[in-house]
Amino acid sequence: IGLGVIFFGFGNGGQAIGFGNLTEHGGFFAGGWKGFLTALCIVVASYQGVELIGITAGEAKNPQVTLRSAVGKVLWRILIFYVGAIFVIVTIFPWNEIGSNGSPFVLTFAKIGITAAAGIINFVVLTAALSGCNSGMYSCGRMLYALAKNRQLPAAVAKVSRHGVPVAGVALSILILLVGSCLNYIIPNPQRVFVYVYSASVLPGMVPWFVILISQLRFRRAHKEAIADHPFRSIMFPWANYLTMAFLVCVLIGMYFNEDTRMSLFVGVIFLLAVTLVYKVFGLNRHGTAHKVGE
């Protein structure tokens, strides 16, 4: 639809909009590198959760095929539904007017005469939210099960159904979600609660990325000969790992200097310290310790 508006002028009296909005209103890349880095600190949180693909490896019938396909589809979906959608929006509407007159997606649909635009967008948003919730429930249930089997949570959390579903972990995840729903009704300013909860998840959400990168470095070096013929090749290893970690460190530094994300950094640090304190006080670090590489 957006490309039809750009190239053929659908909803614009047949006059193609073209690419003028990309170079006008301050020129292309109007915010410069400062604007780019500021936006990057906010956008990076949108990609958290992509690592959940790895959790499904244990249940995939043919992981060599399904995981490769899943990773490839993630890349294309990001390019089409995220980068592509943003490209269409900033091409149709001047970037300095986006958001001032409502949702640009709703306005795009309305431009070509779709009167139910708001309802369509709400449906898409709710569907995406349910999809994200479904992924979160799946991953939380599996991770809680793994922690319980590793004696880092009570054994009852490892209970599974006859179909192998970690029902105890899923139930515990649902209870925690219900706490958030209750706070939404109890606290006078629920938007403030959302800000703090979201802020507390941004930095902890980046921790698994560091852990994955460091774990892969140590694992591949310790088992270099054993995985020489492994079907999954790591491109540019180990430099890709170092570059990614450097990128994440730059994002964290940028979050500190950006007023819009500084609170996320501080709240995230407090949350991580609280979790670490609980981990030490209850002695969870004394159970299920994995063997060090090389032992």
TrEMBL record:
Lineage of the species this protein comes from: Bacteria, Pseudomonadati, Pseudomonadota, Gammaproteobacteria, Enterobacterales
List the GO cellular component terms. Answer: membrane
Full protein name: Amino acid permease
Keywords attached to this Swiss-Prot or TrEMBL record, sorted alphabetically, are: Membrane, Transmembrane, Transmembrane helix, Transport
Compartments where located: Membrane
Q: Is Transmembrane given among the entry's keywords?
A: yes
The answer to whether the entry has keyword Amino-acid biosynthesis is no
Known InterPro entries for this protein? AA-permease/SLC12A_dom
Q: Where are the transmembrane segments?
A: 74-93, 105-133, 167-187, 193-214, 235-257, 263-282
Membrane-related topology note: Multi-pass membrane protein
What's an example Gene Ontology biological process for this entry?
transmembrane transport
